[in-house]
Amino acid sequence: HGSRVRPCSACWSPRGSPTPPAGVPLIDRPASPHCASSAKGSPHGSPKQCCVMADAGCADVGNPLPERRGWLINEYTGEREYFILRGGVLRIRQSPRGLDCGTLYLAHGSNVTLLANGVIEVSSKVPLPQEYILRAGRESEVEGWHDAIQAAIRAEQAKMDRLKELMEDGCTMHKYNYSNSKRSRRYFWVADEGRQLCWGRSKGVDTQSVNLRECIGIIYGPMTTTFQRCQNMEDPAWTCFSLLFMGRTLDLTVNSDLQVHAWFLGMQHLISLHGIGSMPMMSDAQFMARKVQYKVMAVAHRQGLVLGRYLLDRLRALAAGRGLGGLGGSGAGGACSGGGAAAVAAAALAVTSRSRLPAGSSNASAPVGSGEPSASSTAKEGKKFRKRDSAPADDGVAGRNSALRTKVLQLQESLRERGVQAEAAETLMGQTASLPVEGREAAVQSQLRDAALEALKTRCSTLATEAGKLAEAAEQMAPQVKAAEKTDRSLKKLQQKLDESEAKRAALERELSAARASAEASSGAKNGTSSAEAEASKRNQKLEQQVKELELKLEQVREQQNAEAEGAKNREQDEAIAAAEAERLSLQQRFEECTLEAANVKQEEVQLSQRLVRMQALTQKLAPRARELQAALGKLRGSQRQVKEEVQSAKQTFGSNIAQLVEGTSKLAEESKSMEEKYKVAMDDRKRLHNQVLDLKGNIRVFVRVRPINAKELPSEPEGEATVSFRDDTNIGIYDGQHSRRKWFEFDQVFSPDTQQAQVFEEAKPLATSVLDGYNVCVFAYGQTGSGKTHTMTGNAQDPGLNTNVLKELFRMRDERKNEWDIHISIAITEIYNETVRDLLSPSPKKLDVKMNSDGTSGVPGLTELKVDSVQAVMKCISDASKNRATSTTDMNEQSSRSHSIVTVRTQCTLKGGDTYVGKIHLIDLAGSENTNKSGVTGQGMKEAQNINKSLSALGDVIQSLVAKNPHTPYRNSKLTMMLKDSLGGDSKTLMIVCSSPAQTNVTETLSSLNFAARARNVELGKAKRNTAPG
Fold first, then answer.
1. How far is CA 148 from the centre of its chain?
2. What pLDDT, on the 0 to 100 scale, is given for residue 936?
3. Is residue 910 scored above 70 in pLDDT?
4. How far apart are CA 438 and CA 444, in angstroms?
5. Among residues 827, 808, 985, which one has the least CA distance to residue 901?
6. Which of 131, 192, 246, 582 has the fewest Cβ atoms within 10 angstroms?
7. What is the number of other CB atoms lying within 10 angstroms of the CB of residue 334?
């Protein structure tokens, strides 16, 4: 039925009959009994689905979408570009027949604004934000473009609203499972203003959903892995589409053509509004072309052919049906000679050109069965045409043959049209057969009128196509004009050579006449002497020979002149023919432009008259409003005078009020400064009292340090929300983008990413240096791999960490107290690698183990412990130990620690003439908790990660047991917890520094570390005791 809107497949015969049910019009939307059926009987799921889809998914013949095309100037580039508005899409080209260099989809948040001086501004958000400022030669043309684009935007928005309404009602679809590619029948609908896609066994039952704000795109057709793994798909390819999410897809099929049209375009619109980032868009025309391609591919595959071969066979069959047998040959001129795609294109072009040749065309006389002409055949045809010019009798026969062939083609075209009309008439008679007799004639007339309108529209589109072809031909004539100018220059050169040849011929004729005169003079002197006669005879023979030679040269020159003159004449005739053809095309193009301009002028006149009527109606409506505004203006003027009087009276008291305000402001500033000082003192007191409470309870102090974010992690950060935020120096908040919520934690101290090593040491110094007073102290860094633990504890030579800073402070205090105290310091450095204790100061294969002493403390027999008396000795020990520590490269960290590093410093402080105090401090850099999927380790690295996670899990079990105050604490589950027994469960002071990542990609590990730290903060070890050496 051509381009008429047809009802969906559910409204026609279920067996796919091409004839619609009786009573269904060809143009209006169908009122089929299937559409009014219940949700159970209709595949759409609701009574109005079919009509809504026919309205939203198909073109409405009664209200076509606005179309317009023409040249506009792009103000951004200053270039003149060709714009085409069709099907809700604004396309931009460099020429009318060129390729698209820009596209604006008007259905997704587009806008158009009419500016001054004949300028319009067009903006679009899909697939990327775009903006164009365009200008035309006439203001009326700009207004026409503005009205057309605005109408297109409104039409597209109305269509998208209807599609959204359709998807909110929902319909039945099939969902393919990713794991086993099985299909299940479910009811799908859209909720939450188009932000969620829901499905269930029925609407509201066993509901599942996906958030379209997490969707990144949509694909039409069975393109995903889920579809590709199906060996026998039960659904056609043109009913499939997939929604793309990060790491997964949602693969769906629908029941009919109109459903897939409506759901695909509607979901594409919703994803463009709410989805992530930008995605390629598909217009209605592109979608229909892709759907037709899938259908043709399905037909080809059922016949065991690929698409190209199937199209070639169909074109050959079509050519054979129209008597164009040459397309089916396999010779040099056959359609197959150019390869698969070239053959199809050449065959299609041949069929189209032969079926649409106008009367009188020169190509109409070509043999019907001929193939694609070659260069040699074209040259032969040119010779034949030149021979016809020289043979008038042959021209008459050729003309009659050409006319007969043209007549045959016209009769064949007319016969095909009559056949189509007869089929349409039979269809109309079949449709109106069930109507009453008195209403049958009116129905037939209505259908015939609609068919006539459709034919006129088809004819208009054909004429528009021909106009485009003529414009293209005009562009192609430019090279021919240049060739004509070049030929003119060549003719001038030939004329100059011809003049030179004429001069030479005249000189030769003069020489010939002189020779003849000499011969006559010689013959008059015969009566001379015999010697003179002999000489005269020889001279006469010589002159006669020269005369013959000159006559032969003269003949050659004349023949050359005649040939050049004939060639020049032929060229002049060809140029004249080409000039006449160019002039005819130019006049035809000018005529069409004038016709189009007249139509535009008429349309502008209609629009102006309509605007005038609207303006007059608006003026009549605004007249009462204008009178009301004038009355209101009078009231406002009176109010203005009253306000002026009040302002004058207020000026008198304003000065005194200002002085009072200035005095009050200064007092408030002084009070604010005083309050700030009091607040600072109160905060210092609160911190001091808090530390005293912790000392009494023996709680584990917990610090949190956040490292700076790196460039690789910035793109994954959520918009508008920082992953890590700080309320003050004790509260930290972590934002989880997946669940869109922020969780707050409170600790003893929180360090932001810009905190320096010295600031961290200043907070930990009072606790660390209490080792000189005879206390046991433990400072350990905890966190995931790559969070900055080694940097915090060890640092580098330019920016040392806690290990170096604590030892430097101990030596400084030793020197400060040397008059009253004798202080000795020793150091031991170990690591726990794969649950094995290793001595880093004296590496050897000797096996070391952790032993529990009788007093409840832990120790490592055989461990190297060096006495140090200077900072340089300490730095050398730390440097030697760092070289022996186990590290490797992972996806999370280039220098990842693969073991727990423990720096143990023992001090013995003797008061001269008094007691001796023994202290010990553990400075521990724990290996990072590790997600093997992120770190990407294998083999030995996997074994290391397993042992690290096992020891950290044992540490978590100990912390949990201490928080719950269980009678038994599982210290023996790991070498790490055994070494920390006297620090975690004894009478020591313990500081835990949790190192965290600020990246959203590590938010799960960050929350896990902070939750562990919050539990550890609740451990109460009891008040720490000083260790006195036995006297």
1. 28
2. 59
3. yes
4. 11
5. 827
6. 246
7. 18
What is the C-alpha to C-alpha distance for residues 359 and 996, in angstroms, rounded to an integer?
84
pLDDT confidence of residue 473: 64
Residue 213 is classified by DSSP as G
Instruction: State the residue for tokens 């074994």.
Output: 943
> Under DSSP, is residue 665 helix (H, G, I), strand (E, B) or coil?
helix
Closest CA to 983 of 900, 923, 910: 923
Q: How many CB atoms lie within 10 A of CB 411?
A: 10
Rounded to the nearest angstrom, the gap between the alpha carbon of residue 304 and the centroid of all alpha carbons in its chain is 36
* Contact present, 1021 and 700 (Cβ < 8 Å): yes
Give residue 347's identity as a one-letter amino acid code.
Answer: A
Q: In 3-state terms, what secondary structure has residue 756?
A: coil
Task: Let me know if 907 is exposed, middle or buried by CB neighbors in 10 A (0-12, 13-18, 19+).
Answer: buried
- Structure tokens that stand for 361 in this block: 């065309």
What pLDDT digit, counting tens, does each position of 508-541 carry? 777 777 777 766 665 554 455 456 567 767 777 8
Alpha carbon 356 to its chain's center: 42
Rounded to whole angstroms, the Cα distance separating 951 from 978 reads: 11
CA distance 84 to 113: 18
CB-CB neighbours of 25 under 10 Å: 17
**Would you say residue 13 has pLDDT above 60?**
no
- Amino acid present at 918: V
Strand-pairing partners, residue 993, are 703, 781
DSSP state of 718: P
- Convert the pLDDT of each residue in 159-206 to its tens digit: 888 998 999 999 999 999 887 778 899 999 999 988 999 999 888 888
CA distances, 347 to each of 372, 462, 670 (Å): 9, 21, 94
Q: Which residues pair with 916 in a beta bridge?
A: 910
pLDDT at 726 over 90: yes
What distance in Å separates the CA atoms of residue 709 and residue 732, rounded to the nearest whole number?
16
Q: DSSP letters along 921-965, please? A: EEEEEPPPB--HHHH---THHHHHHHHHHHHHHHHHHHHHHHHHT
Interatomic CA distance for residues 751 and 773, integer angstroms: 28
pTM over 0.85: no
Kindly report the number of other CB atoms within 10 A of residue 974's CB atom: 23
Residue with tokens 């020289």: 390
Q: Are 890 and 941 in contact (CB under 8 A)?
A: yes
**CA terminus-to-terminus distance, the chain:** 113
Contact yes or no for 187/169 (Cβ under 8 A): no
Residue 392 confidence (pLDDT): 45
Work out the number of other CB atoms within 10 angstroms of the CB of residue 346: 20
Cβ pair 29, 5 in contact under 8 A:
yes
Q: List helix spans (H) across 698-782.
A: 757-768
- C-beta separation of 593 from 129 below 8 A: no
Q: Is 98 in contact with 83 (CB distance < 8 Å)?
A: no
Three-class SS state of 349: helix
Token pair listed for 1021:
């070890």
Cβ within 8 Å of residue 639, ≥6 positions away: none
Query: Tokens 């521990």 correspond to what residue?
Result: 924
CA angle at 828 for the pair 827 and 833, rounded to the nearest 5°: 155
CA angle, 330 then 331 then 336, to 5°? 45
Question: Phi and psi at residue 151, in whole multiples of 5°?
Answer: -65, -40
Neighbours of 700 (CB within 10 A): 26
H/E element, 674: helix 530-697
Unique residue bearing structure tokens 């030769």: 508
The token duo for 378 is 């074209």
pLDDT category, 847, cuts 50, 70, 90? Answer: confident
Nearest alpha-carbon partner for 1024 in 748, 690, 767: 767
530: CB partners within 8 A, 6+ apart: none
Residues 6+ apart with CB under 8 A from 519: 540, 543, 544
- Residue 268 CB: number of other CB atoms within 10 A? 27
CB 762 within 8 A of CB 1028: no
Confidence of residue 477 (pLDDT cuts 50, 70, 90): low
